[in-house]
User: What shape does this take?
Amino acid sequence: MADLEIRDLHVRIEEREILRGVDLNISRGEIHALMGPNGSGKSTLASTLLGHPSYEITQGTITFMGEDITEAEPHDRAKAGLFLAFQYPVSIPGVSVANFLRMAINAKREEPIQVKEFRTDLQHAIDLLDVDRAFTSRHLNDGFSGGEKKRAEILQMAMLKPDVAILDETDSGLDIDALRTVAEGVQKLHDEQGLGALIITHYQRILHYVKPEFVHILMDGRIVLEGGVELVERLEREGYDEIRREFGGGEVDAVVAGDSGV
Assistant: This one.
């Protein structure tokens, strides 16, 4: 049994159906990439997994660590060990990165974390991710560059130690140095903490720095292809249009790459 199981997930916003039968399994220690063209439903899946109220699940289930969380509140999903790295993180003026991290940790615990333990954990995360200690004194995302916002989220993951993290187009708008920092951070947390990750992306470039074991192609609200890193290489050669012509986008049953000769 996978730690995160998505079964026949159908989702709509207002009267428009966006996801039309998504099946996906993710466990701790696994790195997955979900790729697809703009408008395929990638961000809808991320928002639905974390319980965004604007997205209505009309069919299917989401199970995490053996518990049905299809109707669970966002904070309950986060406390259970799911994490969402947003495409556009919000700013919180007046709250330092360090204070935000301590509040987030305490929200998951019955007893508040002791100051000494927090400082030790924070220093370890700073060292692991090669972050300037002064960074933690700044107000969360207030005046941050795109790369700094992503670095703050990776630091949150290091401190909160989720079982599975959903990274929703976390590479959007990053320069090459910031992209490398984010990718290497995810890889380090995978290697040290056993983090499971679903990297949702439109582009292939982040996957040059963090190597997924499993790759899924989403088109028109359905996963149409699944395989390994060879799918990333195929996309670089052919693009999404060729896959859409071959499999008809989401209008056909999903095909496992190994079974289709791809």
User: Anything to note?
Assistant: The helical segments are 42-49, 74-80, 97-107, 115-129, 146-160, 176-193, 230-247, 257-260.
